[in-house]
Amino acid sequence: MRTRLPTVLLATGHGSVDLYQGMVPVLVPFLVAERGYDYVAVTGFVLAATLLSSVVQPVFGLLTDRWSMPWLLPVSMLGTGTGTALIGLVESYPLSLLVIALTGVGVAAYHPQAARTARAVTGGGNVGMSWFSLGGIIGFALAPVIAAPLLAVGGLGLTPLLAIPALLGALTTIPLLGRGAARATAVRRTGRDDWASFTRLTTIVVLRSVVYVGLTTFVGLYIGRRLDLSAAASSAVLVVLFGGGVIGTMLGGRLANRWTRLPVIRVAYAGAAVGLAGIAFVPGPVLLVFVVLTAIALSVPFSLHITLGQDYLPNRVGTASGVTLGLAVSAGGVVAPALGALAEATSLQVVFAALVLLPATACLLAHRLAEPA
Question: Which pLDDT tens digits describe the chain residue by residue (373 residues)?
């Protein structure tokens, strides 16, 4: 019971941050409908939300490796909410990019400290970390449930109401800001850092991120056009995607406890490659089955990346967390404009066919990793 409440609070806070990561793809059909942006323009929003986050996230990781900074948790939540809330109030494209970038900074500030705190609270176990990760996945899953109906009724002008979850999430972190939380996340030097294995793991994380960002950005538009759906219904497809992510995240920790982490990761990425091939080539509503398969397969390794990274770098837990947790939701945005350009030059089907190669490569790289000593 002593660790259950902090874990629940951390998972809730994680959800309130990643909720806004999930809202960016939800906004895409409405930005296209109301402002006439093309594929390249809307992927610019994904880039703005993720590029700055990718650049500054290691800095926050280094800072939390030196000092305990629990106050970053509520501050970063408020930043993510503010950035998304303002997107409907600014008219120019550059200002829109700027406020979305604020969301990325909030994400960068949140994840290293949150993952360090989660490791301290849960002991770094696979199941405990999967519960923490589940909060983020649920946040993603709730984004279309919360945002799509609201935007369908009032359009982008109602985005200020989307700041409410950030405020509620910040309030849940107050019990974690005392001296107990600061002591729990104090830096402890243990073991030897294995940078070679961590570099391979980082490559896998980046590959997953590119696939996941490409999937969340384009799957609504792709299936909407394949099945002739409205903008609101296209955004609702993300519920299927994120729902599969919830299942995969919960499975990850339990499967790893039974068969260890790396075999589970290898099988998951092989399954993701099959799922993406189905999205690209299988016709009709059966597409949704492959969306679920892909979502589950991509989410199974999510929490396992975090514990592996922290075990590979036991003396740099903040840095490891910033990469494996934060980079997992930001690095793909750097490649998103290239995916948009590919879609403009060819088709979204070609984009999904190309993405098949990435989880296949991640599977091969995972065969070169060993469990940390």
Answer: 456 778 888 888 888 888 887 787 788 778 777 877 777 787 777 777 777 777 787 788 888 888 778 888 899 999 888 988 898 888 888 888 888 888 888 888 888 888 888 887 777 677 778 888 888 878 877 887 888 888 888 888 888 999 999 999 889 888 777 644 544 455 555 678 999 999 999 999 999 999 988 888 888 888 888 887 776 677 677 778 878 888 998 899 899 999 999 999 999 999 999 999 999 998 888 888 999 999 999 999 988 998 999 899 988 888 888 888 766 656 776 787 788 889 989 999 999 999 999 999 999 999 999 998 7
* Cα distances (angstroms) measured from residue 158 to each of 82, 150, 155: 13, 7, 6
CATH for 187: 1.20.1250.20
Q: Is residue 371 part of a domain?
A: no
- Are the C-beta atoms of residues 264 and 325 closer than 8 Å to each other? no
Nearest Cα neighbor of 115 from 340, 305, 275, 337 is 305
The boundaries of the domain holding residue 80 are 4-366
Asked if residue 372 belongs to a domain, the reply is: no
Which uninterrupted H or E stretch holds 213? helix 195-227
Q: Is this prediction's pTM over 0.85? A: no
**337 within domain boundaries:** yes
Residue that has been written with the tokens 């107990």 in this structure? 180
- Number of folded domains in the chain? 1
